[in-house]
């Protein structure tokens, strides 16, 4: 749509009694609706096709930080004058591709705009991409004399983009329009999913000591790190604490029957394998002979077990296990070991050291 086209349409809407929200009753009705549609706390609102800035002004009065965008220079000038002193920003540009760069917003607001755009589906997808997690699209649209967009069509486009969609019929409220209307007018508030809480797998690692040696197991048939040495280890299951998980894994993998009191916390390491998700590993130390003689209890997952000197660990080890045991030998207690995506799973002799040792607080020394 050209600037002239947009100005012509803006002039058409300017003739409608509700366009400038000059009537106090109309203004109050829109303010009430906007208070329900926008977040209850101060938020960043992008008002697209803002026109003379009437809705932008209402949003700023409710404590929101507003950026308006309009393609018509006359509308931008009037909106800037109306919003002077509010802290709002008004940009000249198209509503379908607003000139906001990499900025993201809590709300994208548009009133009587989507139906004017040549590809509403593509525009709504782009607008959704401008939202922060948990943000919302607030769209006021309708069908006037055969023109416009039915709510069902817009809802169908929003469905894969939103976590939930609220439909509000507006035709029945003459206070919004300054008169009775008999066409389809509505608002859609499409809320995206809130940011997901970060979760991690918790794993446990047994540092079984026989003097200066530790027990390692060679992985086989697991699909990850097969052929490499690794300490007896596994994941914490739902409802377990880390000690219970270590007791269970020690029994399942190497037949050692430990009690929680046999375990000593040796190291906590957050680690990430190449291309994988982060996880947190608890390394527990226990003494050889406690709980019986170890043996390979899972030959389908392990080809052999063997003792290795802690100061002469084999090179063909899973990298994060090798890093954990080296940190343990140095006396480090908290480590982050973060692979780059191109790193090998195996310890790389002479490769970059991905370990970052976290210092202890002064009170812990």
What does the model show?
The protein is α/β, with parallel strands linked by helices and 365 residues long. The protein is elongated and about 90 Å long. It has two domains: 3-191, Vaccinia Virus protein VP39 (Rossmann fold); 201-364, Nucleoside Triphosphate Pyrophosphohydrolase, CATH 3.90.79.10. It starts with a helix and ends in an 8-residue tail after the last strand. Strands 9, 10, 11, 12, 13, 14, 15, 16 and 17 form a nine-stranded mixed beta sheet that branches. Strands 1, 2, 3, 4, 5, 6, 7 and 8 form an eight-stranded mixed beta sheet that branches. The protein has helices spanning 3-14, 24-37, 54-61, 73-82, 120-129, 151-158, 242-254, 319-330, and strands spanning 44-48, 65-70, 89-92, 105-111, 131-144, 147-148, 164-169, 184-191, 201-210, 213-219, 229-230, 233-235, 264-272, 278-287, 302-309, 334-338, 355-357.
Q: Count up the domains.
A: 2
Task: Report the order of strands and helices.
Answer: HHEHEHEEHEEHEEEEEEHEEEHEE
Low-confidence runs? 1-18
| Shape label | elongated
Q: In the CATH classification, which architecture of the largest domain applies?
A: 3-Layer(aba) Sandwich
Summarize the structure.
The protein has helices at residues 3-14, 24-37, 54-61, 73-82, 120-129, 151-158, 242-254, 319-330; strands spanning 44-48, 65-70, 89-92, 105-111, 131-144, 147-148, 164-169, 184-191, 201-210, 213-219, 229-230, 233-235, 264-272, 278-287, 302-309, 334-338, 355-357. By secondary structure, it is α/β, with parallel strands linked by helices. The chain folds into 2 domains: 3-191, Rossmann fold; 201-364, Nucleoside Triphosphate Pyrophosphohydrolase.
């Amino acid at each position: 749509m050209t600037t002239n086209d947009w100005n012509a349409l803006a002039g058409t809407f300017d003739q409608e009694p509700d366009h400038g929200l000059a009537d106090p009753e109309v203004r109050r009705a829109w303010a009430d609706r906007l208070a329900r549609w926008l977040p209850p706390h101060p938020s960043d609102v992008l008002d697209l096709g803002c026109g003379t800035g009437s809705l932008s002004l209402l949003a700023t009065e409710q404590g929101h930080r507003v950026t308006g965008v309009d393609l018509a220079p006359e509308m931008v000038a009037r909106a800037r004058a109306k919003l002077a002193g509010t802290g709002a920003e008004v940009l000249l540009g198209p509503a379908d591709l607003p000139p906001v760069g990499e900025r993201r917003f809590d709300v994208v607001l548009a009133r009587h705009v989507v139906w004017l755009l040549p590809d509403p589906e593509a525009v709504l997808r782009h607008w959704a991409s401008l939202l922060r997690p948990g943000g919302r699209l607030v769209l006021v649209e309708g069908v006037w004399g055969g023109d416009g967009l039915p709510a069902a069509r817009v809802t169908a486009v929003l469905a894969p983009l939103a976590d939930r969609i609220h439909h509000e019929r507006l035709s029945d409220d003459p206070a919004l329009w300054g008169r009775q209307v008999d066409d389809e007018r509505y608002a859609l508030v499409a809320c995206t999913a809130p940011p997901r809480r970060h979760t991690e797998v918790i794993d446990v690692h047994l540092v079984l000591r026989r003097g200066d040696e530790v027990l390692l197991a060679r992985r086989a048939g697991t699909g990850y790190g097969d052929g490499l040495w690794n300490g007896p280890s596994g994941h914490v299951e739902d409802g377990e604490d880390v000690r219970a998980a270590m007791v269970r894994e020690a029994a399942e993998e190497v037949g050692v029957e430990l009690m929680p009191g046999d375990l000593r916390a040796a190291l906590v390491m957050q680690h990430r394998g190449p291309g994988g998700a982060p996880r947190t590993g608890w390394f527990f130390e226990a003494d050889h002979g406690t709980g019986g003689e170890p043996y390979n209890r899972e030959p389908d997952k392990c080809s052999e077990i063997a003792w290795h000197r802690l100061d002469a660990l084999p090179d063909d080890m899973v990298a994060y296990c090798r890093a954990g045991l080296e940190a343990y030998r140095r006396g480090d207690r908290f480590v982050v070991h973060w692979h780059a995506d191109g790193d090998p799973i195996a310890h790389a002799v002479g490769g970059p050291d991905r370990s970052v040792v976290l210092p202890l607080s002064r009170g812990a020394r």
